[in-house]
């Protein structure tokens, strides 16, 4: 009897495949990879930002397709415009709205930033919900006051005019990955 239970336990352990990440669905990961393949983008990683997660919790996730794992996660500020609050973001693609835009973005073009670690990446909207991203100067960057760790139940608010804004430590990790990429990387903001 003990041998049978041990055998069942071994089979269970070896056949168990952990979920990609509790905060990113398998269908989102599959859709992201298919999009990258179709649009000739980098297929080693994707940056996912789930704006339905509380702003005091990690809601930015860098997912490595080859490792099938989240390799970086961190806080991410949303835009302050149009009545956005720390717990209820308002989304817009309109120039001057100071709101975050939803959808898929192509991230490429490393440049100087006045904020955080002084590096930003250009973001090009790939959908009608974010087609004005480049015109709005929406970029991926850090801002020193953004904490490096979750602050829940406190909220993170007031650091963004529509850009996904990260802590300096998170941005350094992402920069180390992005600056080596030859193709654009997909960044997907969703709720």
Automatic annotation (TrEMBL):
Species of origin: Pedobacter endophyticus
Superkingdom of the organism of origin: Bacteria
The protein's name: Murein L,D-transpeptidase catalytic domain family protein
Pfam families: YkuD_2 (PF13645)
């Amino acid at each position: 009897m003990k041998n049978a239970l041990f055998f069942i336990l071994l089979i269970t352990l070896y056949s168990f495949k952990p979920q990609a990440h509790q905060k990113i669905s398998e269908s989102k990961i599959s859709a992201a990879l298919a999009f990258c393949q179709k649009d000739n983008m980098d297929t080693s990683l994707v940056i996912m930002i789930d704006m339905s997660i509380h702003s005091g919790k990690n809601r930015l996730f860098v997912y490595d397709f080859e490792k099938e794992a989240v390799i970086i996660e961190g806080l991410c500020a949303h835009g302050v415009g149009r009545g956005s609050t720390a717990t209820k973001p308002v989304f817009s693609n309109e120039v001057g709205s100071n709101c975050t835009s939803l959808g898929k973005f192509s991230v490429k073009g490393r440049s100087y930033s006045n904020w955080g670690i002084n590096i930003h990446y250009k973001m090009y909207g790939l959908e009608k919900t974010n087609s004005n991203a480049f015109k709005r100067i929406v970029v991926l960057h850090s801002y020193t006051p953004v904490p490096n760790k979750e602050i829940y139940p406190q909220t993170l608010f007031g650091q963004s005019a529509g850009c996904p804004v990260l802590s300096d430590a998170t941005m350094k990790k992402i920069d180390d990955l992005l600056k080596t990429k030859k193709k654009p990387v997909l960044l997907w903001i969703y709720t």
